[in-house]
Design a protein that fits this description.
With about 120 residues, this protein is α+β, with helices and mostly antiparallel strands. Strand 3 and strand 4 form a beta hairpin. The protein is globular.
């Protein structure tokens, strides 16, 4: 009886594991060179990402800042010199949402990705 329970448990685990294959596949944000266009504090903002690199350029209010992307569980944290007007930024894995955390408030804006020729 114990062997039968073990076999059922293994088969159930394999069946559930197979269900995950239907989940949408998310490519790494640096899989292609792209520019993400978002809104930050009501101003258009661009984040330029180069294929194969988690270094990026953030263009905000005419200033270009060098930033790094740190992959966390389900988002990319944007690492940069702290700016009180910007706060902390992160991008979701799909690259279509920018989250700004400033003064304890969280603001989410939609981003549009434009692929660049490498």
């Amino acid at each position: 009886m114990r062997t039968q329970e073990l076999l059922i448990s293994i088969l159930l685990s394999l069946a559930l594991w197979g269900c995950d294959s239907q989940a949408p596949k998310v490519e790494a944000i640096d899989s292609q060179s792209k520019v993400l266009t978002c809104s930050l504090n009501g101003s258009p903002t661009q984040i330029g990402i180069t294929k194969g690199s988690l270094d990026a350029n953030l263009l905000y209010e005419g200033k270009e800042l060098k930033v790094n992307l740190l992959e966390v569980k389900d988002f990319y944290q944007i690492l940069m010199r702290f700016d009180p007007q910007i706060g902390q930024l992160k991008i979701n894995k799909m690259g279509n949402e920018l989250t700004q955390v400033k003064s304890g408030n969280e603001q989410v804006s939609t981003c549009v990705a434009e692929l660049k020729k490498s």
